[in-house]
Amino acid sequence: MPEREGRSGVGAGDGESGSAASRFAARVSARRGAGSGSGPGGEPLTLAQRTRSGPGSVLIAVYGIFALAATARSALQITTKFSHAPLAYSLSAFAAVVYVVATVMLVRGDGASRRVAFASCAVELVGVLVIGALSVLEPSWFPEATVWSDFGGGYGYVPLVLPVLGLLWLRRTRRG
């Protein structure tokens, strides 16, 4: 490939980005920087960017899926057969609210939102542990399962693991 006059071919000179290989290398470098707490050009990521980057984006996606699933499930249960298991269906609706709040606050990612997300994850963890234990010790209280019954066993124990991962991620990304 012939070089342009007055250039070495790798991003030299007038500020152009150079060859395709050097542009690719710059993009890879910028992405690596994002994972280590710095954005393109080396500037530090904001608190919200740190919260949403890397594993945080997966965490937000899983919370979003659970928010939709729990909301749809509880809405259907409450509108069609609430009298059958009011406690279980009310707890499912409460879990849906917790998942929605956690999702929105993780997406926002600023200081106040992170505190609310942390509280949401903590409430979720306590809920999974308490409701999980009660559903095992007193199954008659739960004629129908909730998202948190049997420690989230009906959902592959994701409801038990998710708040722990959320709390750990918020802790890990709190500083620059």
Walk me through the structure.
It is a single chain. The protein is elongated. It folds into two domains: 44 residues, no CATH class; 126 residues. The chain is built from six helices and no strands. It is an all-alpha fold and 176 residues long. It starts with 19 loop residues before the first helix and ends with a helix.
C-alpha-based Rg, rounded: 23 Å
Number of DSSP E strands: 0
Count of separate structural domains: 2
Mean pLDDT: 84
Q: Which stretches are poorly predicted, pLDDT < 50 over at least 5 residues?
A: 2-17, 32-36
Percent in strands:
under 5%
Shape: elongated
Order of helices and strands: HHHHHH
Q: What percent of the residues sit in helical stretches (DSSP H or I)?
A: 55-70%
Structural class: mainly alpha
Largest sheet: none
With helices defined by DSSP (H or I, 4 residues minimum), what is the helix count?
6
* Amino-to-carboxy terminus distance: 43 Å
Key terms:
2 domains; disordered N terminus; 65% helix; 176 residues; mainly alpha; single chain
Topology:
Layout: H1 20-35, H2 47-52, H3 55-81, H4 86-108, H5 111-137, H6 158-172
Helix pairs in contact: 3-4, 3-6, 4-5, 5-6
What is the gist of this entry?
The chain is mainly α.
